[in-house]
Amino acid sequence: MATFAVRIFKRYASFGVTGSTAALLSLGLIATPALAKVSQAEADKLKSELTPVGAERAANSAGTIPKWEGGLKTAPPCYKGRGTRYCDPFPSDKPLFTITKANLATYKGQLTEGQKALFAKFGDSYKMNVYPTRRTVGFPDFVYEATTKNALNAELTNGGESLNGAVLGIPFPIPKTGNEPIWNHKLRYRGVGVDRWNNQAAVTTSGDFNLVKIHEQVKFLYDTRGITPEQLDNVGIYFMQVVTAPPRLAGQITLVHETMDQVKEPRRAWQYNPGQRRLRRAPNVGYDNPGTGADGLRTNDQTDTFNGATDRYTWKLVGKKEMYIPYNAYVVHSDKYKFKDIIRKGHINQDLPRYELHRVWVVESNIKPGTTHIYRKRVFYVDEDSWQIAAVDIYDARQTLWRVQESHLIGIYDLLGSGPVLETVYDLQSGRYLAQAMNNEDPETSEKNFEVNFFDPANVAKQASK
């Protein structure tokens, strides 16, 4: 015990914390301050000037971002019912204009550094078709009610790694610190669970790619109606991923129990290798370890744009900004297009994505002293209506822009909510990129209420070995 305390004392001293303060920290006698919780007066804004999840209700002064009217609550005539493809509710919409390298200067104030870098790298082949802004994202009333409660009760402790007093709704609809929009993204409402295909393609500089087919089953325990924070038993999400192709990867399974308080207990993870026929604990599933089948183009914490612990970074809430981001991506999600129609040399087929002007929260993260990650800095752009991270600028150890992420979302009009239907990770240095979260050639994502024991390691091991 004494040796452990000395090690911790020395660690704090190495960060410039010395004397009695380091001693108290090493013994856990100084509590880190709790973050968040807003006053009743601030929470009341969720029923007036703010939407029930914290976005601005009003249109912007130019009228280019419309007033929020509750989201898209009615399925369009083209939709054939639960379990079928989500079709485009706005087939008659035409681009307002197209951003190209030639007119980039006119719009650069509403673009991320990463987006501007893509124009610089790919010249005349890269463009962004900008459409009328449609604020299609809304959530069920019970999510709104829970969000109001969370605004009054939710808090972060242990340096932002321990979430307390929140369940079901957005934890921090009126964010005060940089950690909070990231937690909102991680726990945004997506139904009780999903059964989906998350296919990915690592694309070479010539435009060739190998498709990795991934079947995922997820239970969002945090989103269970009537559950209390205590009943979560420190687990917010259960996740299982099975690779079905190519043959060299087929049969690999990753199982994750995503803990709410990662100081109390880090993420629980297991992996099954069909060659070994054993499910083993996998503490390396997280942070900057390579993602499954991604050919080194993404890290584990880039799944769903960002996931997992935030403890290796400091987080700064820069503020809110109007920016052009991928949105209402029903066309690029259409089953009329094959993967080969979407994937092109250098970047995806930019005739298919839809960009719109939306307000986003800008969050900057920088690597903490004494920790490691291949990404020294990341800048996140978080959509105010959905709390989904829409884009990320990623910097290497030299503070050079390295990679660019985008997440193309759709509004889920039959269940209410939103979800990504295509995610990209562009490597500016190698010229390669990763396209993931695609299911154009597979069944549509469906909501499914899994039992918790479905994700029990013993059950997964038993099913895998059959």
TrEMBL record:
It comes from the Bacteria. InterPro entries: DUF1329. Residues 1-36 form the signal peptide. The keyword Signal applies. Residues 282-302 are annotated as: Disordered. Pfam families: DUF1329 (PF07044). Keywords: Signal. The keyword Zinc does not apply. This is DUF1329 domain-containing protein.
